[in-house]
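Lecture 7, part B: from sequences to assemblies.

Below are the input chains for today's worked example.
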Amino acid sequence: MERFAFLTFDGLANGAVYSAFALALVLIWRAARIVNFAQGAMAVAAAYAAYAVTSATGSYWLGFAAALAGGMALGVLVERGVMRFTSHSAPLNQVIVALGLVLTIQAGLGMLYGNEFRPVGTPFSRDAIDVGGVPLLSQYDVFVFAAVLTIVLLLALLFTKTSTGLRMRAAAFAPEVSRLLGVNVGGMLTLGWALAAGAGAVAAMLVIPTELGLHPHAMDLVFVTSFTAAVIGGLDSPPGAVVGGLLLGLVLSYVSGYLGSSVTPIAAFAALLAVLLARPQGLFAASKARQA
Amino acid sequence: MRTLLWSVAAAAGLVAATAMLDPFRNYQLATIAAYLCATAGLTVLTGLNGQLSLGHGALMAIGAYTVAFAQKSWDSLYLSLALAVVVTTVAGAVVGLAAARLRGPYLAGATLALAIAVPSITITFQSVFNSEQGLPVFLTPPRTLDIERWQALVAGGAAVLVMWLLANLSRSHLGRRMRAVRDNEVAASLTGVAVSRTQVLAFVISSACAGLGGALMAFLAQSVSPGAFPLTLSLFLLMAVVIGGLGSLAGALWGAVLLVALPDVIHSLTEGMVLKPAMASRLEGNLPLAIFGVTLIIVMLAAPGGLQGLFSRLLKRGHHAPNS
Amino acid sequence: MHRIVSVALAAVLVAACSSGGETPGGAKGDSTGVTDTEIVVGTHMPLTGPAAAGYSEIAPATKAYFDHVNASGGVHGRKITYKVMDDGYNPANTQTVVRQLVLQDRVFAILNGLGTPTHTGVLDFLKTNKVPDLFVASGSRTWNQPEKYPHTFGFNTDYTVEGKILGNYIKQSLPGKKVCFFGQDDDFGRDSLLGVEKVLGATAVVSKQKYVTSNTDVAPQVGAMKAAGCEVVVLATIPGFTALSMGTAARLAFKPQWVVSNVGSDHPTLAKQLGNAAPLLEGMVGVSNLPSPADLTDPWTAAFKKIHDQYNGKAPFNGNAVYGLSVGYLFVQALQAAGKDLTREGLLAAVEKNGFKGPGFAPLRYSKTNHSGYGGHRLTKVAAGVQVFFGDVFETDSADGSVNVFGEQRPTPPANTIAS
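Predicted structure of the full complex, as structure tokens:
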């Protein structure tokens, strides 16, 4: 029972960071109808910006702000500089351009910072609080939960309570009609990229300290897991991303704890398949099936 | 008929080429051929039928391990390659049944998870698959031939066969059904095309090709290990077919050539640069990757239809302007 | 026109065949890759990708040593050219780059190819082409199969020998403690555990946990060891996972005595990765057979540092650098021993003849029947932020032999740190 409780909290803590990054993927999907394979690499670049700022100033929060700003700027740059010129009639071309960006960004970071893992500090203690002999959540885990919750709430506000959010959704779903109605579709797209990249950068800031450290490839595995989580939840749904992330975090923790670390990718695949066979558009799919 | 002529010509060209090339170039040719089997299969799935797979590397791994086990039992290469095709056909049918229900990013996610799951099976069941270290592939090379030339002939022959079969498939009734499903599922089903069955069939055919490609990789490397079939392989295959041009099988060929030639060319280009040691240790490896990435982006921006699309556009332009 | 082309092609072909089939050096042996002024040697290393961390520092260090030797006139008048190919730790890439080195660049030998899964795949190819495959950078026992792979020689102390020496330390210095094991889920972890259990007994290890590099959440495993009440944890981990295990244990308030394999116990590497959490390394016991980069009173360290500063100054001087320099030193020793008329056969015979003494504490095992590398280790401990050696040098075999003290002293470095 103690073991189960321990694994549950470990799973939730991991799941929260998967949720954060899955949210970024959901955002870009909603804004631009693409799965941004470069999201991980872009987020790592933002995390390096944070690293540089924190190293120079000694302040975690200045670094955090730099990651957020740098991430958003990179999102704008990628959309305005590259993605805008990619054929929209061939969605796969965007995927390939994104993969090209991954290679370029990772190689660029490798050239700038070398291939070493760099330690990244946390603003709060990661020491787990002991409850009845079982180490459960740490202050940092609570911070991660709060951050994820904040992102979800802000997004919900943006998309449901503001006209900008409405315009963004319209621009993504029906660009032609929106243009006729006077929506600045290009601007909305850029905004979508900026928001998604910003969320991705925050997610990277949350997750990298819990992993091996800062490295050009630091988000590779996180990307895969979070993408799986986003698909499980349904790519159109921010709450789906959160639920998908937490669910996957729990499954992976239980499987790793009871069956072994090497079984986790198989479990992720099984979980994904089980969900998709029952609900081909994820847990939180809209009721009416849409052809992608 | 035309495809048959092309195939015979390709086979003859292969025999001649292998006689002329040095062993390393023959090995590269063999590698291109092995990739070609996989990329051609992926072109059928994605280009012809409109389904996306990020898991073809995993299917290649299944083919590769089949060859390793088969060669251990009987050391009859062609039988082992055939068995690899059979096994991946079955695997492809299972995956294809699930895939036919999924669209767009959901299919991408499912196949991506497959690409990660298959290599980890070798670690979970290491008494069978020997974990990361993998398994040897026993071979008895012919005495009369250079081993690399033999590898190029076998792999090249298999690739020619695959291209011939797929070219015929593309022109067949099934090929037309696949295109109909790709262009508009609803319209296709209204005209009596069984959409799901066509999609499963496309996945099965594509898997068989990928399995053969993986089997050939095992044959070339004389070993199999999970590290040789990472997620990046699946992504690189997809890059290859899109950059080559999804519209036709010729695109799969350009893609396979690029997978082998581009890293080699970039390496030769960057090797000549004289750098300070501190600089070199950072650029080495990273610079080729950066050039590779930038090349991908530029090709996609300049030639949205891939290289094959670019070539046919240039050809057409040439025909229209005979006087210039 | 066509005829001219085909005639030209045929001519090229004939020329290519005749130059390819010939082995320079004639009847005496195979001297591919050797001229009067140059020896071309190649290697495969991860320079990019997740595995590049740390490992990518080895080849530049070896290269720095060769630069030093070349600046002093080379070996028998020949300068060493070291071609380093990036395989990204992907066995499929290793296949290609090693073929490129052997078939196209026509290297004399492959030196210090890194990684068990990567290098295992090219053993047969190197055997077929009779290429000396020296000083493989991995502690797998695979390299020691002189009957099956006569051209291949290991370098690292193998993981089982290492496990036995770690187990011996626990038996002698930490008796009665609850021992657990945390290792990589491949031959590294498997061989290491085998060694530990050979000394402590099969039932002595109360909790055996495994990780894979594709899963960075080790809390379930570390949590299980805490729950099992482990007092001593043996780690067969790569540096990233040593740091991760210690960090995770600290956050769970789990403070066992860490006893770490050589691969994962380089203090400068770990301290850099842990950053502010580096004090967690205090008290960590490790093993090494090469001099400590931190101990400049060691004559070998001092000598290597001098070369490093001159030829590879920007790179950190850590365990990887000392490793790379030691590989270079041993290779030059072997070249010297092979004599002026350098052939592949001569080089292999020289390595099998052995007698090499150098920076390593433990003896090198090379003989006609043994192709493993170093046969032992010395224990290290981190005290006040510095990793220092303590106690004797131990040596043993990977079978059931006892763990013995190796009393022989290392020689001091020769003049200019080049063997004669």
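Note for the exam: The mean pLDDT of chain A is 89. Keep this in mind when comparing with the next example.
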